[in-house]
Amino acid sequence: MTLKVDKDERGLWTVLHITGELDLVTSPVVRQHVHDAVAAGRRELVLDLSEVFFCDSSGVGVLIASRKLMRSCQGRLHLILPAHGAEEGSHVNRVLAALGVRRLFDVYSDVSEAVDEEAQPLSA
């Protein structure tokens, strides 16, 4: 399956809805979308990974690089990751947790919470 990235804007937040596999071949596409958002002056970014069913080390690398980029420009990065094993996309949550990097990210259950300034991230 190929990767699909849809962009949405919610106030100050740019939301990238990512669907498919996040791997060596497709991760540069996500990296480019993140860089394009920053180049356009967007400093609040949500990566909706709820429909990503596979993520390898290249995908994790893009997520970590995106976090670093957003922090370097005083921006914010929020991730959407399902918490339960039966839901689509839980693979990413498990991979990040297994690698010990899940705690680096502000994770939310859905886009509405991720763009809500009052909402608290899910615990790692």
Automatic annotation (TrEMBL):
<dbReference type="InterPro" id="IPR002645">
    <property type="entry name" value="STAS_dom"/>
</dbReference>
<dbReference type="InterPro" id="IPR036513">
    <property type="entry name" value="STAS_dom_sf"/>
</dbReference>
<comment type="similarity">
    <text>Belongs to the anti-sigma-factor antagonist family.</text>
</comment>
<dbReference type="InterPro" id="IPR003658">
    <property type="entry name" value="Anti-sigma_ant"/>
</dbReference>
<dbReference type="Pfam" id="PF01740">
    <property type="entry name" value="STAS"/>
</dbReference>
<feature type="domain" description="STAS">
    <location>
        <begin position="15"/>
        <end position="118"/>
    </location>
</feature>
<protein>
    <recommendedName>
        <fullName>Anti-sigma factor antagonist</fullName>
    </recommendedName>
</protein>
